[in-house]
From TrEMBL:
This is Peptidase M20 dimerisation domain-containing protein. The keyword Nuclease does not apply. Residues 204-360 form the Peptidase M20 dimerisation domain. One of its GO terms (biological process) is proteolysis. It comes from bacterium (Candidatus Blackallbacteria) CG17_big_fil_post_rev_8_21_14_2_50_48_46. Pfam families: M20_dimer (PF07687), Peptidase_M20 (PF01546). InterPro entries: Cyt/Met_Dipeptidase (IPR051458), Peptidase_M20 (IPR002933), Peptidase_M20_dimer (IPR011650). The lineage of its organism: Bacteria, Candidatus Blackallbacteria. One of its GO terms (molecular function) is peptidase activity. Keywords: Hydrolase, Metal-binding, Protease.
Length: 464
């Protein structure tokens, strides 16, 4: 049980009145941000990424923040500071202002012409992640206006999150002398577990690799020399097949699942009890599952490594045509989802060693990696977050893991190893995260401000 959050008597009444008073302005601001198509994956929108940061900078400046927009070799990053008390600790709040492309034909309104309809704001980026950034900003503004305790705030909004945060580490390195070391890092770029507020404590890492096998310098006739010269495709496929078994379990030595402690086990059981398996079947459009056991499904997504083959190079792809030639040079495109406990470089070595046991000439190439991350369930910030969710959303949060990765987080952990990450969800999966008709509900805006105000109050009061 989280410790009770001691909010002052009139806190809730004042907060609700403030929300009532400010919500129209917040919606206008969100409309302005959503109307800027800051699609980081498309180079022609690079200027929009700069523009969206300039727009949000104006909003933050109105609340008293000083700010800086930093250029990287990729897209820019916005940093802003609000120092209330030089004695108080700093916290960092991370969000992103870039969005996914919005070319799905199922959009019922124009994705970059925001629309308020049936208590929802429709538009690309409304829930991921522009809306949650604004609710947090308004929570800060409320505490500041009413003179409530507030930690010193350092905002970091990037514009490459949807494209892998490739230059975020470079930004942190470049800004190292200007950045304040935060006591904790707040991230709201995650989603509810069904209808339950959620605090994400674990994210998987990712290793992208290519496995390559070459034999000779040109294709060979399968009749004249077939059965004599090696077929690298046969041999590579055979080696790859030893990396994962028919139940989807990785069989590469040393690439194993972590042992969960009692607290993690309890969090898993609690989520399994409310997990909607039917919904997952609908969302995965008829794909067969390795298991139908709900608890095991969650464990697999949260904390088991994966090994996936996505494609090959050097193979024949013309539909219906078979050319009876042996390929001489083949490559497999692979990904492995990893645990926070695993170093992607070690996994890369383990993978190469394992494949070379099948064929000594197989070479493995690193094609990009992200470390997983895990936050401390016992940190005071996490406990305050749980109490804040209960106040803000009216339900105690589930403590969850995520199968995916947020590229900026391992970089934060590299630069600020002693600052726990706190991930408070404000969006729902059914708000069409990354899909057509993305929207942010007005109820999530109100409750998001409530949750963030309570959380930041808790941190500010605790620091006094
Ligand atoms: Zn996203």
């Amino acid at each position: 049980m989280p410790p009770p959050l001691h909010l002052p008597d009139h806190f809730e009444t004042e907060l609700n009145a403030y929300i009532q008073d400010q919500i129209e302005e917040l919606v206008q601001n969100l409309f302005e941000l959503v109307s800027i198509p800051s699609i980081s994956k498309l180079p022609e929108h690079a200027e929009d990424c700069q523009r969206v940061l300039e727009a949000v900078a104006k909003m933050a400046a109105k609340f008293g923040f000083s700010y800086k927009i930093t250029q990287t070799q990729g897209l820019p990053v916005f940093t802003a500071w609000l120092e209330q008390n030089p004695e108080a600790p700093w916290i960092t709040i991370y969000n992103h202002m870039d969005v996914q492309p919005a070319d799905e034909p199922q959009w019922e309104s124009s994705p970059f012409e925001p629309l308020l309809k049936d208590e929802r704001i429709y538009g690309r980026g409304s829930t991921d992640d522009k809306g949650p950034a604004l609710t947090t900003l308004y929570a800060i503004a409320f505490l500041k206006e009413k003179g409530y305790p507030l930690p010193n705030i350092q905002l970091i909004y990037e514009t490459e999150e949807e494209n892998g945060s490739k230059h975020f580490g470079q930004f942190l390195d470049k800004m190292q002398t200007e950045l304040k070391t935060p006591r904790s890092i707040l991230v709201s770029d995650t989603i509810f577990e069904g209808d339950h507020p959620a605090l994400t404590y674990r994210l998987r890492g990712l290793l992208q690799a290519e496995a390559e096998l070459i034999s000779g310098s040109q294709d060979q006739h399968s009749g004249m020399v077939g059965g004599v010269v090696e077929n690298p495709l046969n041999l590579l496929v055979k080696a790859l097949a030893t990396c994962v078994d028919e139940s989807g379990t990785v069989t590469i030595p040393d690439v194993t699942a972590p042992v969960l402690n009692a607290e993690e086990q309890a969090a898993l059981e609690k989520t399994a009890a409310v997990f909607n398996l039917e919904r997952l079947h609908l969302d995965t459009h008829g794909s067969r599952f390795y298991t139908e056991d709900t608890r095991e499904i969650i464990e697999r997504i949260w904390c088991r490594p994966t090994f996936e083959i996505h494609g090959f190079e050097g193979i024949q792809t013309t539909p219906g045509m078979i050319k009876s030639a042996l390929p001489y040079h083949v490559k497999a495109k692979l990904t492995l989802r990893l645990m926070a406990e695993q170093d992607p470089n070690q996994v890369l070595k383990a993978l190469e060693k394992h494949l070379q046991a099948s064929h000594p000439d197989i070479q493995v190439h690193d094609r990009g990696q992200l470390r997983g991350c895990k936050s401390d369930l016992d940190s005071p910030a996490m406990q305050t977050a749980a109490a804040a969710c209960e106040f803000g959303f009216g339900k105690s949060p589930l403590i969850v893991g995520s199968g995916g990765s947020i590229g900026a987080l391992p970089e934060f952990q590299r630069i600020f190893p002693n600052s726990p990450l706190v991930l408070i969800a404000q969006s729902l999966m059914s708000d069409h995260y990354h899909g057509p008709n993305e929207n942010f509900r007005m109820s999530q805006i109100r409750n998001g401000i409530r949750t963030m105000a309570a959380y930041l109050y808790g941190l500010g009061a605790g620091s006094e």
